[in-house]
Amino acid sequence: MTPSLNRELLHDYQHKAVAFIKNKPSCGLWVDMGLGKTITTLTAVADLMDSFTVGRVLVIAPLRVAVHTWPNEISHWEHTQHLSFEVITGSPAQRHARLNTKADIHIINRELVPWLVSTLGKHWPYDMVIIDEASSFKSSKAQRFKALKKILPKVDRMVELTGTPASNGLLDVWAPVFLLDKGERLGKTFSGFRDRYFMGDYMGYHWEPRKGSEKEIYERLQDVCLTLSAQDYIKMPQRIDNIIPLAMPSKASHQYRELEKEFLLELEQKTVEVNSAAALTNKLLQFSNGALYTDDKGAFETVHDTKLDALEEMIQEAAGQPVLVAYNYKSDLARIKARFPKAEPIGHASDTIDRWNTGKIPILLAHPASAGHGLNLQSGGNIIVWFGLNWSLELYQQFNARLHRKGQTRPVFIHHLVMNDSIDVTVLEALQNKRITQKALLDALKKDITGRLAPDLSLRPYKNFQLITIKGLYDE
Fold first, then answer.
1. Comparing 33-37, 139-143, 378-382, which segment has the lowest mean pLDDT?
2. Do 262 and 222 reside in the same domain of the chain?
3. 55, CA 20 to 30 Å: which among 84, 177, 365, 380?
């Protein structure tokens, strides 16, 4: 396809970000979903290569983003189409063959970073590395982080892209920032960073920032990170978040309390037993959604249909409008498909996204981990139902951004099915607290279009949450 997009179509904030990348050998672009961070970064790459500042570039991204988003953006813009690229995926033999191509840009999924570093060894050819969704490198214990750490001396330029730099709190920022500055700003080790800026509980499981440490962290990152918020630069569609409280049937409620208290529950077919608090948390989330796994092979037993009934009512109220449903467990997926035969999982079919965006799929089922990055679904609908939440703010925000993004022409409704007096409420509160922490970080580093630090913004819980009670469905 002949490119019809050109550099003149870039927004002022994108030109600002391009200049930031070019002027900072290592930098983080903490940019909201939908602000065009891919073409922004590619524009900087094109300029740096045209000026012979950079020789070869490696892009690390989630698999779907690596295979589709980056190649499409390179090809569709006039000022980047001259850049040659190769996607390093496939079997080991295919990867080796593609690795030997002399393309300007090599694109690889993040899971293959250890393989790449091991394969290339001392012959590392890339003087610029771009990490898309850099929050996936937040663990200093992960093999992908350790692999990249080895080749830092060979890299002249590093760019990190993410919209969720601190999805679980400020402890998340150490590893990505280390990859930018080798420990200059936040210290050489994670433990040193943690002990300096945070205070742990007596078991060492929970860490809170020490007094004044948040401000110090913000100040240390101001010169190396640029944050851009969608609400500051583009007109976003209205977003309405609905919390739909649900009540378990009496029998299920008693079973839930028994499991919560005794770590043991006798079901009709099998006894479920858990041996740790973490395992119990997982079981309670399963129970809230309506089914419990009874072995490690995927067998499950239904304990209630409360959320299925609520989802059915939501779909009826949608009156034929397409609905995007987020599920948490494979048991959720199986039960939803059984209740709604026309529902389709997002899967790996190449035409699923096209059929959704053209209105041919009435109910699209997706796990946030498989539909959180690089998918444009806004043309297909404006209704999201969270059948089951999980603890990840990053997945939560990325999933919602599949519909709530630039190009969406209708208000976006995000419905949360929340079981009263259950772990669902705890998860929702945890997501809210994580959002506040991350927003504080992003606001502290926010600069206006001239590059000056923007004034602090107040932190408030969501003001447009609407509480909806579905009456009459579960009365016994």
1. 33-37
2. no
3. 177
The pLDDT tens digits for 407-443 are 888 999 999 999 998 989 999 998 988 888 888 888 8
Q: Report the distance separating Cα 405 and Cα 377, nearest Å.
A: 9
> Are both 95 and 75 inside the same structural domain?
yes
Three-class secondary structure of residue 120 per DSSP: helix
User: End of a domain among 197, 230, 263?
Assistant: 230
Confirm whether pTM is higher than 0.85: no
437 and 398 in a common domain = yes
- The 10s digit of each residue's pLDDT in 121-158 is 999 999 999 999 999 999 999 999 999 999 999 999 99
User: pLDDT tens digits, residue range 330-364?
Assistant: 999 999 999 999 999 987 666 888 899 999 999 99
Is the domain of 81 the same as that of 145?
Answer: yes
Q: Cα dihedral sign for 94, 100, 104, 106?
A: positive
Instruction: Tell me the C-alpha to C-alpha distance, in Å, between residue 264 and each of 258, 261, 275, 337, 377.
Output: 7, 8, 9, 29, 41
DSSP, res 170? G
Highest mean pLDDT among 69-73, 183-187, 237-241: 183-187
- Do 402 and 324 meet the contact criterion of CB atoms below 8 Å apart? yes
Domain that holds residue 277: 239-467
Same domain, 199 and 323: no
Report yes or no on 472 lying in a domain: no
Q: What is the rounded CA–CA span in Å between residue 433 and residue 168? A: 9
The count of structural domains within the chain is 2
Domain harbouring 36, CATH code: 3.40.50.10810
| 185 within 8 A of 219, measured Cβ to Cβ | no
Contact 29, 39 (CB under 8 A): no
User: Residue 42 phi/psi, 5° resolution?
Assistant: -65, -35
* Gap between the Cα atoms of 65 and 75, Å rounded: 14
